[in-house]
Every structure is written in structure tokens, then in C-alpha cells.
User: Fold these one by one.
Assistant:
Number 1:
Amino acid sequence: MKPRPSGSQERGFTLIEMLASLGIFLLVSGAAFTLLTSSQQRYRTESEVLTSFQEARLGLDQMVRDINDAGFPPPTFANADPAKVTTAPFGWSPNYTIPAPCQIGTGGGGTCITPTDFDIIIETEPNPNDLACAPNCSVEWIRYQLQGTTLMRAVARKQASHDPAVDTAQAGFVPFVQNVVNNSPTLQVGQFQLEAAYPLVFAGGEAVPIFQYICDTPSVPQNPPQPCPLAGPDNAPTNIRDVAITLIVAAPLPDATTGRPRLVQLEGRGRRVNPNQ
Amino acid sequence: MKGRRRTRKRQKENGIALLIAIFILLLIGVAAIALVVSSGAESALAGNYRSSTSVYYAAVAGLEEVRARLRPTDPNSFTNTAPGFLPPPGTLGDCNPIYVTNPIGGVAITPWVQGSDYSDTQFIQEHGDACAGAGPPSPSPTAPSLWNLNPLKSLAFPGPLYKWVRINGVSEKSLNLDVDADGRADSIAPLYFDNANRVFSNNPGVGPQALELTALAVLPNRTQKLLQYLVAPTPLNLTLPAALTLDGNNVQFTVPNSANFQVSGTDQGSVGSCNPGAVAVTAVGYTNSSDASRTNILNAIQANLTGNYTPTPPPPPTPPPPNVNLVSFSSSLGCPRCSLTTVGGVNALVQAITQSADVVIQGPATQSSMPSAMSASHPMTIVVNGNLTFADWHSTGYGLLLVTGDFTFDPGASWDGIVLVIGTGNLYSAQSGNGQFLGAVFLARTLDASRNPLPPGSPPVSPYFDFTPASGSNGVYYSSCWVQVAQPASTYKVLSFHEISQ
């Protein structure tokens, strides 16, 4: 005889069981989705920080390379065309065409319009063997200038008796590194001010120079190089030996979990090797 | 019955707990992987920058090593460590490069073999068809780097990771520079550097040959860089117009009352095969005829000792006048910027000498700071940054001595060669003794009363030759041989530098 199926063991769920299990399921899946959302936000923030980091690294690398090469070829490569040799490793304004040097300052001091804390013009022939221009490659003025929160780059061919600041501006700037906040300690990012969020980075609420210049001291040659604004009679763009670069880049959006702006700070140093005369 | 029990058991194991657990694990796993990927990429980016910087400095290390070893007086010069490696000066061909190799771990480095691990592809790019369109000769002469020679070879850690440094002459073709003004940069004749006019020339008579140094550095992660120097030796050819030259306005002058103290512009003193015979120079020279310089000097000389400042013109009147004259400087100095009539020019001379110095001593220094290797057969270029005091030193120094502070001299000592006191321009002595200067002495003050630098364009001021009346010393005697022997060895100056993009 076929055994009778056991009704008590094959019956469906009771309403109570259903409600309880549904409740538990909702709780668990709610927790899971909360975790997922938070992970997504974290991932988005991190990838933005990473993108900023990457842009800043590439920018810093390029700037250091340009500064290392500043002043190539030097004036000893005498050539009938002055556009084929550098006059000095770094361009300046005003009085480049006279030529008379200006004084480099910091925090708005000095008489130079460029070079300054946020502006530099490098005079070099970046790639003399470039097939696109060889054998008539010209010396170029490469300018980095912070405009708002974008570090811009401009390149102009050197021309005799021209002002590099004017020529590079006419040639046009292109965005080089975005969201550079060195000069924006009070910039609103999210609900925070950078200065309040990063008091150590922006000490005293002051801007952080991107470019800091170390000058040779030909007037007292036995002295080691020192910061240009302190170099007295040697404070001139032609004496620049080292350029210390500090790049502070903010991620486009504040941290999704804390709401704080996310900053990346990078340091680099370019050293001129070419002679300046 | 048995089958039913098994069915019941399976039903009890039904549920979604496992699924939920797997789902949560999956979420956590994804988050963890994202984090790992993110931090991995971040460190990779930082690593790239570090690699780029490391490889740059590795290549610079190679260039600097070779630049130093080209100098014959360097202890590790090629002349000492690899005889025969360097061809005679001026004969290194553009198409016949030589290589300094730096193999690490026994890896063979053969840059001339195209397609080898560290082959020199840049040579063909640079020379085009000038060298028959071919690469460097196979094999080219090589010398090991210092890191492959004792004592550095036995160090437990590796040296800089450059692979090779190529040394070759340069030509119009390799520099892409029209030197002979024929409108084309096509010649492969070697170029020479005219140090006075700071231009290149095809004429070997204008100066030494310009050399090109190219370094390849490769890191284990294959990051690589090619850097290039153009260098040329820059001999200084320092000549002075007087036995004792006081450069600047309103010189101050005090000399001993002793009859032993003489200043002679007559050439004397043999060194090796060099014998005196050069035209006599002024005994005491000053540079400004319209101020109190001449008066100050003459007033300091006792009337009965005027004959101690020689040579006097024949026939000498009685008493003979001291040989004190206005002097000007030779323009043949191998340092075009070093015009000795301006503070900036004198400072440029300090810079040029410091760059070629064998020893740079931070002052205050004494005779015990003088290098023990200094001898008559091995004169040295010594720079003292600050004050130098000789006290109770009864010995002789040899070579070029540059003091940028006050130089307190002990006349018990002697110096054979050139003595320059530039900065405070103060040479002081109050002791007795029978020592002397044999060669030439030059004083220039480039600092104001507060010891701050004067403007570069202004003339030097008030050098002070301050040998007190009671002090001793036999004086200053001009010697063209010692001036010649004491010249600083020429360094290979960097004429240009750039990174070759690859």
C-alpha cells in the first residue's frame, strides 16, 4: 500500500513565517545595498583622486624635464639666427628685450611679471632631432601659468626682439593640469574651505607657490645658491639654478563619505645644467 | 521510509541564507578588489615618477664621472686608470667614439652591436649618413667605469645604473651647426672651442677640441634615459701684471721696516725644466691712477729702502725710485667673464678657480688645513672660503692659494706659486720670519665695510697689504715659472646639456 503523504510536513509557510522571513530578507538586502552604495561612492571618490593624481604626476614630470633642459642650446652654439639659440635658460618680463633682469619676488613681491610663484617661462629647444622640424627646429618659449585653478601651458617659437610673455600669451594657453588649488586656500570645495580643511597645507591661510626659485650667487661665488628673493644683487632670472615645484591638486568632488575636499600634494625639483651665458 | 527521510532532510536545508551570504561576500570582495586596484595604480604612478627621477640621476652620474676622469690631474683620470683609452688631445673622431661601460652582474655591454640589449641607436640618428650611415665601429675602444674598478668594485651595493657613456668629437653634422658659414651643417671635421670668444671653430689653433658625452641609463624595470653633455677644457691662463698686484681704488699699504723685505718684478726661480727669462714685471702694481693708491704705497716705503722695489730703470738715480706702477690686466685670461677691473669679473675668477680647485677648505682655516699631498713636484690649487691663518708655520706651500677672507701670514713660511686674496682683500702679517712669496700675489676687495658684496659692475675697493713695520719676511719675488706651474688644471666645462627624447 502506498504510504499516505504526510500533510503536516508538506504544508506551505504560515503568514507569520512569511512576514518574518520577508522582514529578515529586507533587512539583509537593505544592509547589502547600503554597503554597495557606500562602496560605489568610495570607488568614485578614489578614482577621481587617482585621476587628479595621475594628471598632476604627468604635469610635474613634464615641467621638471623642461626645466632640466632649460637653456639648450646655449649662446655658444653661435648661429646667424638668434632664434636658434637661447638667450637665457628662463625668459622674463618686463625688460627681456633690452635686456635687463627683473627681481623675482614671492607673495606678490618683486618686479618680475614672470617668473613668479605661479608663472614661469622656460627657453629651450625641447627636441632638436624631431623629424617634424629638423634641421630647422627653433628654440621655444614654454610657459606654465596658473589661471584660477587650471595650470595652463603655452608654447611659442622664440623670435628675436620679442617679449616671451607677450608671445606665449598670443600663442594661446591650453589647460595642462586641472583643479590646481595652490593659490586658492579659501576656495569653496563642498561645504569646506580648503584653508580650514587643510591648515597644515595652507599655513596661515597663505597661498602655496607652485614655483620657488633658487639662484646662483655670482656676486659672492663662494656662497652656496640661495632662494632668489633673498639673493640680493643676484636675484635675477638669469641666475636661476633650481626650481622647486609644489603642485596641490584637488579631486573634482569632495570625499563622498566625509564631505571633505580631497587634495593631492606633489613635490618636484628641476635643475638647470646649461650655462646661462 | 528511508527515501522519505532523505526528502525531508533536503527540504530542511532549503533557504536563501547561503545565497545572501555569497551575495554579501561578493560585494565585500568587489569593494576590496577596487581598493587594491586603486592603491596599486596609485603606487604605480608614484613609482613611475620615482623611476624617471632615478634614471635621470643615474645618467647624470655617468656623465659627471667621465667629465671628471677626462681631467688629467684627477686621481681616477683615464690617463691613470685606462692608459691608451683616450686618443691624443684633439684627435678623437666624430665617427670613432669610445665608450665607458658600466656592466652590473656580468652583463656584456656592447653598444656598437645594433639590436643588443643596450645598443647605441642614437649614434646613427645623430650622425645620419655622415659616418657611412653605419653605427660605431665594432668593437669600439672601451674602459670600465669606476664602479668596475677597485676599490668601488668591492662594495656590497651597486653603483649608479648607467650602462655606457659615449665620448666622441663633434662636427658640424653632429651638432647640426653651420660653423664654416657655407650655409650648410654638413662637415664632419672636428670642432674646437674658442674659449675667449665662446664659439666653435674648425681651426685647431683656436682652442681645445669639444667633446660630446652621451650617457644611457636603464633601470631594471626598463625605464631609460639618454642625456648628453658637450664639454671642452677651459684653461685659465692666469697672468698677473706685477709681483704684488693691488687691484682696486685707494689701496692701503704697509710694509716692514726690515731691509730684508723686497718686492722684485725680476723673473726668478726655476721649476723643473722651466728657467727664468721672462720680461720683468712691475714690483708693486695698482689700478687707479687718479686716487690715493700711488701716494699710499709710496708713503709706506721708507726713504732708505726704495731700492728694495726692483727692477729699477738703468742707470738708477740715487736713491733709486721704487718700482711702483699703474698696471692693467691681460685680456688673454681663459675666462672671458673674469675682467679683473670689476667686482663681478673678480668674482667670476673666484668661481672659475673654485671649479678647478683640488681642495676647497671652509674657513676659518690654519696651516694644518693645508693638504699633505702638496709638494714642489705636486703643486695644488687650494681655495679657502673664509679666513686663513698661518701661525708658527716654518714650511713652504706650493701651487695656487685663493683666500676669500683675511689671510694672516706667518713670514716664517713661504709660498711658491700664486697667492690670491679676493673678498676682504686683506693680507696681514705681524710676525718675524725670513719666508717669502715666489711667484705672484694679487689682492682685491669685493666687499664693502659691512662685508656685504659690492655691485658687480663697480671696481674693487681698498685692498690692504698689511705687513706691519715690525714684521719680518723677505718679501715678494716674481717667478714666471712658478706662475705657470701653479695654474689650476683645466676642467672640462659643460657647454651644453640636454635630454634626448626617445
Number 2:
Amino acid sequence: MTLFIDHNAPVIVQGITGHQGMTHTARMLKAGTNIVGGVNPRKAGTEVVYPGARNGEDAHIPVYATCQEAREATGAQASVVFVPPRFAKGAIVEAVEAGIGLIVVITEGIPVADTAYCVALAQRHGVRIIGPNCPGLVTLSDDPANPGVNLGIIPDGIVGRGPIGLVSKSGTLTYQLMGELAEYGFTACLGVGGDPIVGTTLLEALQQFNDDPDTKACVMIGEIGGTAEQEAAIWAHEHMTKPIVAYIAGFTAPEGKQMGHAGAIVSGGKGTAKDKKETLERVGIKVGRTPGQTAQYMREIMANLD
Amino acid sequence: MDLYEYQARQLLEEQGIPTPQAIFAENSHDVAEAADRIGYPNVIKAQVKIGHRGQAGGVKLAKDREEAILDSESILPMTIHGHKVSGVLVAEAKNILHEYYVSISVDRTSRDYDVLATANGGTEVEEIAKQHPEAVKRLHISALGDFDIEDARKMAGEIGFYHADVEQAAQILLKMWEVFKKNDATLVEINPLAKIGDPDDESSKSLCALDAKISLDDNAAFRHDGWKRFEDPIVSDPYEQKARERGLHYVHLHGEVGVIGNGAGLVMSSLDAVSGAGEDQGTGIKPANFLDIGGGASAEVMKDSLSIVLADPQVVSVFVNVYGGITSCVEVAEGILKALEEINTAKPIVIRFDGNAAQKGLQILLSADNPRIHVARTMEDAAQLAAKLAAEQKGER
């Protein structure tokens, strides 16, 4: 069984010809991701060439006019979206309606009403969105013939396959914890994004990890704003059969100030790091004081795995 | 972005929601003129982006011109809960028969829109929810945006609007939704939505929005001309202003250690690590700011960031925490050295690099042989060192 998406699944990139799209498509290809196409109506019929990007050979990526066309031509199971905020809603709706099963939205700065619309539409179509404003998804495989996927901007090569699942609201803290726990390896790491509304919540990610037999323990990284951490913790308390360790950022964040991420804000006394930590600890989830201590808690769990 | 009451009213009026007559004024001369036009008695209300202004003396009733001038002279220079008053709203005083509360907001959990309402309005809804949770109704509008007059009527009935008010309440709910949608709001709150009029004359009674709070989605500014018409003349913090002009996420705090990093989560975590170190060391040292250089920052961005932080007299030491993903630690290192070429500072800078080009970045820093530069191996070590150096420097001052 694989998490979120099949190993080696065919993937398209929306916004492939932009600066971000070009840079990260090259990276994803080098990481072994099976990128089969891009979408840009103005450049349809052309090809983007990435010298030496596919196992040392040039990768020729065809550009299609629409997601529908790209899916029909390539059988794409996922799309990675690098389209700028003002065009993002249109791009995501197009991917949803084309029946692409997994849409990873990296774009930061999408209006919340647009995201809410896209997420509701995706739910109606049985499609999963990850993000927006997220670093994406990495799945790990130990079969070189059937590699995992790197969808988004998570650096390749930090970790290999192992028993840990990681879900996070933050990009760089994801890399930090991956680095700290590289000795054990991961089944999958995903950033759910720092916006007020996201397509896949911390809770939904934990559900996936709980159903995955190869994932033995989870790291959850949260931050101030909203109550997604509490909802995940309360669900986990009732349903999760695997241990979780957590980290929460933003104890020193003042009320009413947005801390970088659109969703990272304490308002009306709600969404504080303290509240989150207390709820998590009440249901038996250890919360590290620093990323380093969080990793230490995970090492203790790993030491006791049979 | 939060709006002032007078701006929020403007958006309600544009959609035809009844509000009392009111005029915004910035000095007592204009207040007197406005008060004469509105008539007496009237209400003089501080315009400030924070709640509980009434208890702070920011809302006063004026019976005549003299009182209006006196009230405005006491309110205009006020700073309420740390927020400078930007002016006053001179509003018609209404005879209130009953107060409702209605708001529409983004619901992060159900990922749609939340209509929160109670027939016992007036005070803060959090208070009502605490004391009479059963009186607060929570309903939802789909994120796909289907909400019409029939839905609004049904909702008005469920909220508990008195029979005679249901039809008008439904109209107001629908208009609030229009305000919310058209303006890319994240919150539209009317509190109180008051029933006003002569208690003995049924035909004189109607619903009226006596106070409103609206927040707009900053991410949607691109489709509203950058929200230019709501630009706030009050610059709350010169450093925040400077950082915003350069497109950086910056929040000014009260401590001594300037913090710069890449990624909102990592920077928040760095702030917490500095506070923790200050506690551990018994010095009470705290972070002076949050500054996120973002993903893939160039040397130029790093240089600007460090310049802003070093210019802050509150900053005694600096902690730079970078985990290079897209960001290259070489760029960051070069940015730090560029800033130090231009600024002569005695403030120590503690740097922790990991990830993309970390070793190379550290080599560049160390080869500069600058006594201000300190390198730490882990984020925790760096925070401890930055806090310790800040305490020492502070002691020397």
C-alpha cells in the first residue's frame, strides 16, 4: 500500500513554464518523480527540456493546453500547482474537473474564498487537495524501480524510506525534523500549508498514516492559529493506533499579529500555542519544547519499536 | 486587514444595510459641525481598531454642541489598549428597543462560512456564548456560495429574530453576505443589530446596524486595487512599515534579540527558542522581532533584512536561523557580509545554517574573520548563545 499516491505515479505541473515551475520541475525530476507533462494554454504543443534531469538523460516534458487534455494524454494521477494567486482558483478548478485525483498547491497568497471554493468542489468530486501555501508531499520507496514522488519544493535527499510519517503546517520545520530523524527514515512527509483553509488537514493526514501499515509512528508539527492541532489530537486519541510526537511553534507570538503565514494568528484569545500544547498533552501526545526535543521523543519511540 | 467602524459602515451602506446617520471627523472643529448636522443628542465614538473602547471611555453621548466638543477633545488624543485613535464618528443617537448580534466569518474547521447570531446582542459575543451558550446559534453558508433569500429567511427564523423582524433580518443577512463576498471579507460583524423606534408605535420600529466590524482578506487585495481606499494613515511601527515596503514578513516585539530566518514556522520556533533560553539563563531575554526572509531569498533580501533589524535600538544581539531548502545558505552568508560592510555595528550576530549549501555558507562567514559573527551548530545552541550575548551586552551598557 502507498500513501496518498502510487509510487512512480505520472504527474503533471500547472504553471510549468513560470520561474518557480521550471526550477522545481527540474528538482522533482532529479528526485526521480515521473513528471509526464505541463499545462499552459499559451504554450500548448511545445516542450520543455530539462538537460540531464532524468537519470542523467534529458527530460522532454510536453506542454498541454488544459488539464483535461494532459490527463487524457498521460494518465496523470496528480498535479502540482505553481500558478500565481490570481490565476490559482481557475487552475485548481480545472484540475478538479479533469478528475486528477491529487492536487498539490504550492502557491502562497491565494484569497481564502478561492481556496474554500476549490476545497468544497474537490470534496464533491472526491479529489484531494494538499495546500495551498505548502511545501508539498514526499513519499519514500525502497524500490529503485518504483520510486516515491516528490511533489512540490521539499528538498530531495534528506531522508530515505523508514517507519515515520510526518505532517506539518510549516515548510522549513518539516525539513528540520526530517533532518533530525534522517537516521530512521520516513514513509511520507507532507506540509499541509499555513493558510486558514487547507485541502488536507492535520487530522486527515493522520488518518492516512493510521491506515498505512508501514507507518509506525508520526510527527505532527503545528503552529498558532485555528484549532486544527486540537481536532487532530482529539481524533487521534479515539482512533489512532500509533504513537505521535508533536511540536508547536509560536508560544511568543503576540495576540492579533499575523506571523508570516496567513493562518498563523491568535485572535480573540483563540489559537494560542499554549492551548494547543495543553490539548495535545491531555490526550497523551508528547509536545517537544524545541524541534530537537521533539526529535528526541521520537528517538525514544523508535528505540522501543519491535 | 481590519477596518475602522466608519469604513465598515461605508461597506454596509453600499449594500443598503440600514445604519444611523453618522459623520467621521478628525478634529473638534469638524466634530462640532458634524454634530450640528446630525442633531442632538448624538454619540461620539472613538475610531480605533480594537474592541472594548466603550469601557476605556472612547464612546460618549453628547447632548449639545458644547458636550460634543468636550467629548471629542477628550477622545481624539486617546490611545486605547495601545491603539492610537484615528478620529471620531459622530452618530445619530437611536432609541434602542432590543439588540441582536450577527456575524459572518470564515470557518477554518468546517472550511466554509459561519453565521453566528444571537437574539441577546449588545455585549461581546464571547461573553454571551459563555453565559448563555444555548442562545448563540451557529449556521453555515456553503463554500460554493449558494445562499439566497429563502435560505436567509429560514436562517433568520432559526436565529430567533422576533416574528415581526424576520423578513427585515433576512434581507439584512442576505446583504451582509453580499458585503462579505464582494469585498473578500473574512469577518462581517454587526453588533448590535438593533431594533430601534418608538416603543408605542409599531410602524416606527426597524432594524439598524449600530456598530460594525469588518476584516478583509489581505491575499485578495489584488482584486480590490490594493485596498487603497482603506489605507491607514496611522503608521503603527516604523520598522514594520520599512519591512512591508520591502515585501518582508516582519512583526516587532518587545525583547532584545533580533530574529531572522526562512519560513514562518522556523522563525516562530526561533522566537520560542530565544525566550526559552532567556528563561533557562534567568535573564528574561526575549526576541525583539519576527522576520521571515521567505523561500529562495537572495543576498540582497538578507542584507535588507539584517539592516532593518540592526537599525532597531532595542536589538542587542541577532540570531539568524536558516534551513536551506530552496534558499541557499551561500546567498544568506553573502547578504550578511554585505550588510556588515555597510553598517558598523557592535551587535553580535549568531548564525546557524543547515540544509542547502550550509557548509559553504559557513565557510564564507568564517573566512570573513569578523568578530561580530558567531557560528553555532544547532538551532538550540544558537538561541542560547544569542540570548547569552544579549544579556552580556545589556549588562555592559
